[in-house]
Amino acid sequence: MKPVFLKSRNGQILLPLLLLPFWFLIYHYLQPFTNYLVYNAFGMTKGTQLADALWFFLFEFPKVMLLLTLIIFFVGIIRTFFTPERTRKALEGRKTFTGNVMAASLGIVTPFCSCSAIPLFLGFVESGVPLGVTFSFLIAAPMINEVAIILLYGMFGWKVAVIYVGTGLAIAITAGWVIGILKLEKWVEPWVYETHLGNSGLADETLIFTKRIKLGYEAVREIVGKVWVYVALGILVGAGAHGYVPEAFMASLMGKSVWYSIPLSIIIGIPLYSNAAGIVPIVSVLIEKGASLGTALAFMMSVIGLSLPEMIILRKVLKMPLILTFIGIVGLGIMIVGYLFNYIF
């Protein structure tokens, strides 16, 4: 049963403001507390493999969960302004490059993943959204999501997070634009154009602010509840690599000097199934151990943006030539981004 305080309108508004100072306090003292816990309370020696691995997990896991909780709450409020109906209406009538830019940008803030691919695809086609514009949205939505951005910011800083968003947008816009130019509608399953979904039942509505705050709480409960296991597993794997994987080995496999590291990382990444919560901590350790930034980002983008489950789902509405074209164009974009950042950084 909820406290009386939370039932009132003012209570729902004031609670986030009251909790925010505690969040910053915990976040600020997390590192010194972890140092004390590992090196004093547990009596472990700094620099040993086990101590480094344990410190990595005990520090990174709560840090990531704190960031996820805070930012997903605010993103959850922002998402209340975007429904499938509004997204479809915003993209209706958009042509060529302008539509691709708008679709990719909407993909960042809308709460859709690969599991939503078919209903979204059907809805966009029914609304008259061009195929290339639809693909810009379908690429950006899973690849550039708030979990990926939060984790990248928490582990690498704002520069890498901005790089990821910028390159992800470039891939989504360019790939959709190319698919649109190629006029590949003939490789969409015929039944798609015969489908009439009607109103999805998610009509636009004007929500009071307290309702949006409530939906922000629900977003935290739903998203964090789903991804915390992936975060824990990803950081656990990362902790093991942090403590035990030799730097020379990783540099020889994914370093700048290895010309085939980027295409190899993309090929390896496509059949793997993970979301940003599981893959970013692993990517963090790969870079720390000697993998180049471009190679690591290419691996991450292929895992998230070209996941095998999404391809299987899309096969129900697309013929294989279009799926292979989609993989080829996006894969080439990811490869170019990887080589570009290996050259720059």
How is the topology of this model organized?
Blueprint: H1 4-7, H2 9-41, H3 49-79, H4 84-91, H5 96-109, H6 117-126, H7 131-143, H8 146-156, H9 158-182, H10 190-194, H11 209-244, H12 247-254, H13 261-269, H14 276-288, H15 293-305, H16 308-314, H17 320-344
Helix pairs in contact: 2-3, 2-11, 3-8, 3-11, 5-7, 5-9, 7-9, 8-9, 8-14, 9-17, 11-14, 13-15, 14-15, 15-17
Structural overview:
With 345 residues, the chain is mainly alpha-helical. The protein has a domain at 84-154 and 161-179 and 189-194. It has 17 helices and no strands. It is globular, with a radius of gyration of 22 Å. It starts with a helix and ends with a helix.
Uncertain residue ranges: 1-6, 197-204
What oligomeric arrangement do these chains adopt?
single chain
**Percent helix range:** over 70%
Approximately how much beta-strand content do the residues carry? under 5%
Shape: globular
**N-to-C series of helices and strands:** HHHHHHHHHHHHHHHHH
The averaged pLDDT comes out at 78
Radius of gyration: 22 Å
Structural class call reads mainly alpha
Largest sheet: none
CA(first)-CA(last) distance: 53 Å
Number of helices: 17
Number of strands: 0
